[in-house]
Specification:
There is one protein chain. This protein is an alpha+beta fold. The chain has 3 domains: 238 residues, Distorted Sandwich (Beta-galactosidase, Chain A, domain 5); 362 residues, Glycosyltransferase (Alpha/alpha barrel), CATH 1.50.10.10; 84 residues, Immunoglobulin-like, CATH 2.60.40. Helix content is 30%, strand content 25%. It contains 15 helices and 35 strands. The protein has an 8-stranded antiparallel sheet with strand order 5-6-7-8-15-12-11-10. Strands 1-2-3-4-9 form a 5-stranded antiparallel sheet. A hairpin with a 5-residue loop joins strand 27 and strand 28. Helix 5 runs antiparallel to helix 6, helix 5 packs parallel to helix 7 and helix 9 runs antiparallel to helix 10. The radius of gyration is 27 Å and the shape is globular. The termini are far apart. 49% of the residues are buried.
Length: 730
């Protein structure tokens, strides 16, 4: 048990006296909630069977805090208070949902320009002389600018669990005026945990200005998970329950067909996207990065989305054949496998980084191209099939050598480890076992050989026990989740569904469930952004667009089996917000002053519709890594999944994933939406060129017609709840 600060000691002493005036109390299920005021704080006490926790909604260090007004509402209480530092108002609600929920929002108006050099954390575990200190475990807390979450359980199995969420969007005025960041504000070390306002330095809060200084949503469960499977399931369910209470963020429609055409032109015509080796053309990883030799991952990461798009559109793109012509050059006859760097250009490598050496492999870099080759093979590409199957024995040899626990880097010929761990004590690339499972399932589907299925099961089981440390790279963890779901469907074994849930829990701990509307963050949406690595300081286009596609695939495979409703909700919501956010990875969508003057790799051409790799916190400029050619799959992945071509030449757009589309008459379609029925999604009917839109009618699941409204672009827009069955007539 760790020690506590003087602020926690003082709070415990106040709570121990238990002579404060109770302003409000309510009981939901086995939980009692009471609101009390002291000379320093407004406390919300929550008690249940063997659990006891207090949240501090208001704090004033002068010890002269007094209640000026209180108003009982339908679901709670609003308390107004004043002290020498200003006035406070806290809205407190207690709700009965899937879990008992506590919500409180506190607004502060300073009496004078005020600095906040320190602010105590807002969770207190009360104790008196006869009580032992409450022991517990913090499973997750905020990392960087990820969601302001704190997920913890009490030690006893009946002690219960708490999911704390701070809606950091609401702090935007505080962060803007003080030029502080919302990063690392929710956390602490047990028992001193919770949210703490970021300390101000040069700039103060402005007098007589209202600032939200806390906006919390907390869910409670009487159970303390005792297994990894129970932990990931509880986390996902509590996260989804809290998510539904976050004020909905308004999304916008941006015409992706236009973005795609601009991106396709720049991808194929801009010299900075390409290099040439021995008469064959290859994509650079970054715009104008001519020093780094071509990588097979880069070629395939662009090729597969292009093929997705062409299958949807029916057009042929010469660029596809141009990329395919060079793929065979990555095969090493001596090692009998594809390699990362193009052998004919490996002499460009300078070895300035551990992996930038001819013979060194980054573990996931072997498996990701194999996965994409297997996808090409399943589409009937015989050359890709040969490259895939010829390389598979090497991949299996490496997997068995490392016992399905891959290091970060290794030498391809000797298998000598170059870098074992991501950081000391953290192990290597844990999610590669799931990525490897995925390619084995692809091999099984392609060849029907049972040996690949058995090998997939061996690899998949090694993910057990990784907990919330399983995540190495977002797209690979998402592919792992889908592979494990497929393995569950093939074998009927529950362990693979549990491990799939674990992968999903790892992904959703690495998202940003708030919108950074301060500094440069005002110029682009960031709600539900996903970080590429567990410690990455920015979000990245390539990993985001691949997770987007992986989630679509996951929901397709989950159509006929029972998955956690929370996973369906969270996946669908990530998809919906990605479609809204993704245009802002393109430099022409951003103001010039937002872009970094210094670029790590290649250069950034702000006129090109080639996505930036990196978007940062609002006080940092973006694009400092480079303009990412291998993130070009962004638009080519979105269009086929969110625009449905109709027989009459029109298109139907939906920002939610669509579960199925079935023609039920000559001019009638049945559309089943995925997602959550408690959330509204956007749909549009888009005409073909200048021709007039037909007379459309849309009927909802309840039989009522949905209202269609004409937009400025001449589209017909309407809205529907998710998880609905719609009938489209014309």
């Amino acid at each position: 048990m760790n020690g506590i600060s003087p602020w926690q000691v003082a709070a415990s002493a106040e709570l121990y006296q238990d002579n404060m005036h109770v302003l409000f109390n309510i009981t939901i299920n086995n939980y009692s909630f009471s609101v009390s005021a002291s000379p320093s704080s407004l406390y919300i006490k929550v008690k249940w069977n063997e659990g006891d926790v207090v949240f501090r909604a208001v704090y004033s260090p002068d010890g002269k805090l007094e209640v000026t007004r209180k108003a009982i509402t339908k679901t709670g209480i609003t308390v107004s208070m004043k002290s020498t530092m200003g006035t406070f108002k806290s809205h407190i609600d207690v709700l009965e949902r899937d879990y008992p929920l506590l919500k409180f929002t506190t607004t502060y108006i300073p009496l004078t320009d005020t600095h906040i050099p320190f602010w105590p954390r807002d969770i207190i575990f009360p104790q008196n002389k006869n009580q032992k200190k409450q022991a517990g475990t913090v499973h997750l807390k905020q990392v960087g600018t990820r969601s302001g979450i704190l997920y913890f359980s009490f030690e006893k199995e009946t002690g219960g669990s708490v999911f704390y969420f701070q809606n950091l969007t609401s702090l935007q005025n505080y962060n803007q005026d003080t030029q502080t960041s919302a990063a690392e504000t929710v956390g602490g070390i047990w028992p001193e945990i919770g949210f703490s306002l970021p300390p101000t330095t040069d700039l103060a809060l402005k007098k007589k200005t209202a600032y939200i200084i806390s906006d919390a949503i907390i869910a409670f469960d009487e159970k303390t998970p005792t297994t990894e499977a129970a932990l990931s399931e509880q986390y996902l369910n509590m996260l989804a329950s809290v998510y539904l209470e976050i004020p909905p963020r308004k999304t916008n429609y941006i015409h992706w067909p236009d973005i795609l055409e601009k991106g396709l032109h720049d991808l194929t015509e801009s010299p900075g996207c390409w290099c040439q080796v021995d008469g064959k053309h290859y994509f650079n990883a970054y715009i104008s990065d001519y020093e780094t030799p071509p990588e097979i991952m880069v070629q395939l990461a662009v090729l597969l989305p292009l093929i997705d798009y062409c299958r949807w559109d029916g057009r042929e793109l010469p660029v596809i054949q141009k990329i395919k012509e060079g793929l065979g050059e990555f095969y090493d006859d001596k090692l009998k496998t594809i390699v990362r760097w193009l052998p004919a250009a490996q002499d460009r490598l300078k070895g300035e980084e551990e992996q930038k050496k001819p013979n060194v492999m980054d573990s996931w870099y072997l498996h990701h191209p194999l996965l994409n080759l297997s996808r090409l093979a399943l589409l009937g590409d015989k050359h890709a099939e040969k490259l895939f199957l010829d390389s598979l024995p090497y991949a299996m040899k490496v997997a068995r050598h490392f016992r399905y626990n891959w290091p970060v880097f290794y030498e391809m010929d000797t298998l000598k480890v170059v870098k074992a761990e991501t950081s000391e004590g953290e192990g290597g690339q844990h999610d590669v076992a799931g990525l490897y499972t995925h390619i084995l399932l692809q091999a099984y589907e392609l060849t029907k050989k049972v040996k690949y299925l058995k090998e997939a099961e061996k690899a998949a089981r090694t993910l057990k026990g990784k907990g919330f440390k399983l995540f190495y790279q977002a797209n690979n963890t998402a592919f792992s989740a889908g592979a494990l779901l497929r393995l569950h469907k093939l074998t009927g074994k529950e362990i693979y569904l549990e491990l799939s849930n674990l992968c999903m829990a790892n992904i959703f701990q690495n998202v940003q469930l708030w919108d950074c509307q301060y500094g440069y963050g005002k110029d682009f949406p960031s709600f539900f952004a996903l970080f590429p690595l567990s410690d990455a300081p920015y979000t990245a286009v390539y990993e985001e667009q691949e997770v987007f596609c992986a989630f679509h695939d996951y929901l397709r495979h989950a159509k006929d089996i029972e998955i956690l409703p929370s996973i369906r909700t969270l996946c669908s919501e990530y998809i919906r917000h990605l479609v809204d956010r993704a245009p802002y990875y393109y430099p022409p969508m951003l103001p010039e002053n937002l872009l970094s003057e210094e670029v790590k790799v290649g250069e950034v051409d702000r006129k090109l519709w080639v996505a930036l790799e990196d978007l940062h916190d609002g006080w940092e400029k973006s694009g400092e890594v480079g303009q990412e050619v291998y993130g070009a799959g962004n638009a080519f992945g979105i269009l086929p999944r969110h625009y449905l071509k109709l027989d009459n030449g029109c298109m139907l757009y939906c920002d939610y994933p669509v579960e199925s589309v079935k023609k039920t008459g000559q001019r009638k379609l049945e559309i089943i939406l995925s997602g959550d029925s408690r959330i509204i999604c956007r749909l549009r009917l888009i005409g073909n060129g200048n021709s007039k839109l037909p007379d459309y009618r849309v009927q909802g699941s309840d039989g009522n017609q949905l209202k269609l409204q004409k937009t400025d672009e001449g589209h017909l827009e309407f809205f529907s709840a998710g998880a609905q069955r719609l009938q489209l007539h014309w």
